[in-house]
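Q: Convert this sequence to structure tokens.
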Amino acid sequence: MAALWTVPGINHFVIGTDRDKMGLTDWVIKIVDLSTGNVTDETANVEVSEIIYNIDSPATGTVATDVAAGSKVLPLKEGDGANFSAGMKVKINTVNGEEYKEIRKVTGDILTFFKPLKSDVIADTDNDGKADNTVTQVGNSGDYRVVVDTEKLSTNIVAGGDYQVQVTSAAGEIDVTSEIFHATDYDYDNLKGDIDYLKQGIDNLLNGGLGGAKIYL
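A:
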């Protein structure tokens, strides 16, 4: 069964990724009109943002020694390994910028990741006055919320039409196509939902049941 989009309306879907796909910003979003086969680049017309959890006191640790690209392990200064646990997502400063990794296991003061580092990591422990290189826990989920306002699109989304979204990220090595979205008229869709809700409320009152709360997402 196809997912529903309301037109006109603001619709949402989530791009779910696998490990170490945090911090991606190079998304390209294209919409395919299945009735015509037309493909339109809508990157500039949609909003993509990573779902990030708030962490009040993130774990931190200092890199103990230089580590070359391709390694899955990262040694920390003595005692710092106790700050971390398997499953945590962390941000690491490398010679080519920040990398995000998920911790597979912690052995003493050594972090082991699921996937290898793409760039070298420098410890900066030579007393040259520079700050030591730290590893920091982050709340990045690696999942991305996409907001599609049908009135802002170049694609003409019409009620009764079927559409798919093509999503790519070169940095994340992602190239996927969504499920089918079936567009429905906004007024009809919401009117039907409100009628169902009112009928349920009347049934509850007639049968002596408790009223309920409707949550709008």
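The chain has two domains: 3-53+142-206, 60-138.
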